[in-house]
Structure formats: C-alpha cells, structure tokens
Design a protein that fits this description.
mainly beta, four-stranded antiparallel β-sheet, 0% helix
C-alpha cells in the first residue's frame, strides 16, 4: 500500500550525529502517522520515535533529548535526526507508516515498514 525507502545510514563515531530520511510513495493519503523503529539481533523491533498527522510526537525514553523526528508533508518524507549517538544505538533502523483507509466499505488499519538501514556507532 505504501512504499517506504530509508537512506542516511552508515558508520558514525560515539557522540556523533546522523540524519535518516524516509520517503513514502503509493497510498500516502492514507498515512495517519510515521515513525522510526530499530532492531538488534535477537531482540524485538522497538519503535523509538513517532509523529502523527495532528503533530503529536513521541519518543522512547532511551532517545529522548538526543533524537528528533520531523516530517515534510510536501515531500512525503520523515526524518530522524540522531545526536549524541551511543554504542547502544547501533541497530537496523526501520521507517514505519500507519495507514487508515476503507476497502469495500470496511475500515482498514495497517502498518507498513521499510526494508531497514544499518546504523553502526563505533570508535
């Protein structure tokens, strides 16, 4: 329904910064919110930042004060500015989009994920 393509990953030193971008295409009019999740081997994917159409923004405690999520609706793009990066921020980061639309007169709520992009924090 929605295609999400992440960019901006790579290697960064501890204390450094990185900005991730995610471009959405397809059924973008159905998007009610977007966000970023991350996952490390053996652990469940964790949603770390979300931004909804009404402007509400949420962060998980571990990134509060360091990460900033923003959105450019004209470009259908969401960003994650990551500052003061720590070793434990190393993960595959995934863009997410929550969708709401009707199909055959029935409401459909779903979440789409991007393919993920690696962010490695290392000396």
């Amino acid at each position: 329904q929605v295609r999400l393509v992440e960019s901006g990953g790579g290697l960064v030193h501890p204390g450094g910064s990185r900005r991730l971008s995610c471009a959405a295409s397809g059924r973008v009019s159905a998007i009610t919110g977007m966000g970023w999740g991350r996952q490390t081997p053996g652990k469940e994917r964790e949603l770390v930042a979300t931004i909804f159409n009404d402007g509400t923004i949420n962060y998980v405690d571990s990134v509060k004060g360091r990460f900033t999520i923003s959105r450019d609706n004209a470009k259908n793009t969401v960003y994650l500015q990551m500052n003061s990066l720590k070793l434990e921020d190393t993960a595959v980061y995934y863009c997410a989009a929550d969708l709401y639309y009707t199909e055959h007169d029935a409401p459909v709520v779903s979440r789409s994920w991007g393919q993920g992009i690696q962010v490695t924090v290392a000396s």
